[in-house]
Amino acid sequence: MALRQRLPGQLPVVFAALLPILFIPTSVDAYILPRATLVFVFAPLLFGLGALSGGRLGELRLPALAVVGAAILAWALSPAPQLGLVGAYGRYESVLMRICYVGLFFGAAWLKGPHNKRTAGHSGTSPDTVVKGLLIGASIVALEAIYEAVTKSLPVPDGNLGQHNLLGILLGMALPLAVERGLKGWRWLPLVPILGLGLYASESRGGWLAALIGMIVLVLWLVPRRRLSLTLGTGLALIAVAAVIFAASPLHNLNNDPGTARLGVWRDSIGLIAARPLEGWGEEGFGLAFGHWQTQDWQPGSNFDRAHSVPLDLLASQGALGLGACFWFWVVLWRRLGRARSRSQAGLVAALAAYTAWGLVNFDWAPVTAIFWLLGGLAWEPPPPRSPGRLRLIPALTLVPLGAALIAFALLAQVADLAYYADQPRLAARLDPLQPKYHAAIGTYQELQRAADLHDPDPDTYVRLGQMESDPARAAADYRRALAIYPFDVSARRLLNRQASTGPAAR
Question: Does 126 fall in a domain?
Answer without folding.
Answer: yes
